[in-house]
Amino acid sequence: MLLRPLFVVLALSLSLVVAACGSSDSSSSTQATTAASCSKADLQTVSSGKLTVGTDKPAYPPYFEDDKPTSGKGFESAVTYAIAQKLGFTKDEVKWIVVPFNSSYAPGPKKFDFDINQISISPARAKAVGFSAPYYNAPQAVLALKGTPAASATSLAELKDAKIGVQIGTTSLSDVQNIIKPSQQPQVFNDSNDTVRALKNKSVDAIVVDAPTAIYLRDFEVKDSVVVGKFAGTGTPWGLVTAKNSTLVRCVNQAIDKLRASGELATITNTWMGPYTKAPALS
Amino acid sequence: MDGSVHEGAGAQLTTVPTDRRAAREAARRQRARRGAAISIASTIVVLGGLALLITQSKGWPSVKETFFSWDAFKTSFPDILRGFWLDVKLFVSVEIVVLVFGLVVALCRTTRAAALYPVRMLAAVYTDVMRGVPTILLVYLVGFGIPALELPWLPSDPIVLGGIALALSYSAYVAEVYRAGIDSIHPSQQSAALALGLTSAQSMRHVVLPQAVRRVAPPLLNDFISLQKDVALVSILGPLEAFRVAQIFASENFNYTPLIAAALLYIAVTVPLARIVDRMQSRGQVGARGAVR
């Protein structure tokens, strides 16, 4: 009996997914024809006339400030409002909801139009969700407490024997395993707070997080810590997560492209991430 | 019985009750057949209906891909199994500590001497507090709190800390189980032992405890089934045990199948344990009588 309303909800919101089951090619081509316009009135959003955006709680700097995504302050908050503006939404029409990272990729109807939470784009992940074009590339960096052997490391080889902590769901773990190849298993924590706590407790010698977070932590959170260095390369691209085959992706991508072309994205990036990018490269 | 009585009396007399008996048995067989047919049919209808309901639902293809992907299962399983080995080691060591420490707490709570009141009180506070705090919270507090003290002689390994938290929590439950067992032994046992010249400690050790422990073996095992699953809570402290490894795979590929794989591993251990408990419980009456004898 309870299943009936559930089915109605599924039927309404998953019609796209079902269309995709037959053939993903045909569904994407129908999207292209049905959603030709990216004007606000034509956008199919979760609640009409509003842009519902998800992020995890707590929302950390430098991506959000004071755990308030609505402030427009912090890199991802600023990016969101810039995209929303390009799509025709006023600041008041952007509604933020809390989406824990682990539930952002759950199957079934999404409660958000897009989720912005420093999520790396990868082909494996794209099988389950839709990704926008990247809005940032983040290299990973190593943060250690002053005075420890890890803090004075100048090369990846010197980090091999360190006890390393990372946060689950980040690309840091695969970077640690593939690039540092540590002699002992890294410790994997639930969230940023626990990872930082483990470093402060000296349960781990160093933590690996994205470079802006590492520099932010060094400057404001973890006394007597040093950014040992960032991994070479441009890092992994971050994208907005949407429902798979969402009609919104094309329009969001258009907005991101416009922001990039006009230099607005670069300005936002410089404003919020500028102070948090300088770190020596590790090789 | 009645068949054998009539057997000697002649062929004609035996046929009547035998017929009746045959009819009764035929009816019984038919009833049994019908019962079996109905239970099979209803099982097929219920399970088939459920399967149909699930597989025909609109979201099923995406659920199937996200929760039951064979590829994801295959690639993640070896690592999860390695993680599970850590769970097993942790479970066994915590279990041993819990068995001993729980008994100590139970013995403290069952003391009678007036001078030992503080011991009784501390044991009661301990069981109340430890059973009152959610296990995950205890793991968190011990795991992140103890290293924060920065005392070099305290353990800092997350597995050891997690094990300590689990042992603290489960010892409280197990102490109460032991206590129930001790209280269930009739006071006459103790009196008889004292009358035979045993000291009260000896009577506890040789008379009360052997009976009590045997009596509470099934609920003790029940707690260990629960502990066997709860070792996954240690994952919040960072070690790569089965649940954490599964979560890592899940978040890396946005696919929940590895969590199903981890669940299967926990089930593979808990179900046999549960069957053992069932068997012990069904023999419970015999065991208890045997103990008193």
Largest sheet entry of chain B: none
Across the major sheet of chain A, the strand order is: 8-7-9-6-10-13
Average of per-residue pLDDT values of chain A: 83
- Whole-number tally of structural domains of chain A: 2
Morphology call of chain A: elongated
* CATH topology name of the largest domain in chain B: MetI-like fold
The CATH class designation of the largest domain in chain A is Alpha Beta
The DSSP helix count of chain A reads 10
CATH superfamily of the largest domain in chain B: MetI-like
Helix content of chain A: 25-40%
Outline of this structure?
With 283 residues, chain A is α/β, with parallel strands linked by helices.
Q: Could you explain how this protein is built, in words?
A:
The complex is a heterodimer of chains A (283) and B (293). In chain A, α2 crosses α3 and α4 (75-87) runs antiparallel to α10. By secondary structure, chain A is of the alpha/beta class. In chain A, α6 links the parallel β7 and β8. In chain A, the strands form four sheets. In chain A, strands 8-7-9-6-10-13 form a six-stranded mixed β-sheet, with helices on both faces. Chain A contains ten helices and 13 strands. Chain A has helices spanning 3-13, 15-22, 24-34, 75-87, 123-126, 172-180, 192-200, 211-221, 248-261, 264-273; strands at residues 51-55, 94-98, 114-115, 130-131, 136-138, 140-145, 164-167, 187-189, 206-210, 225-231, 236-238, 241-242, 281-282. In chain A, 35% of the residues lie in helices and 17% in strands. Chain A folds into two domains: 41-137 and 237-278, Periplasmic binding protein-like II (D-Maltodextrin-Binding Protein, domain 2), CATH 3.40.190.10; 140-232, 3-Layer(aba) Sandwich (D-Maltodextrin-Binding Protein, domain 2). Chain B is mostly helical and 293 residues long. Chain B folds into two domains: 1-48; 72-290, MetI-like (MetI-like fold, Orthogonal Bundle). Chain B is built from 13 helices and no strands. The radius of gyration of chain B is 28 Å and the shape is flat. The model of chain B is unreliable at 1-11 and 286-293 (pLDDT under 50). Classes of the chains: A alpha/beta (283), B mainly alpha (293). The A-B interface holds A 3, 7, 10-11, 14-15, 17-18, 21, 101-102, 105-108, 122, 124-125, 127-129, 165, 168-169, 173-174, 185-190, 194, 197-198, 200-204, 244 and B 53, 57-59, 61-63, 65-67, 144, 147-148, 150, 156, 158, 236-240, 244, 247-248, 250-256.
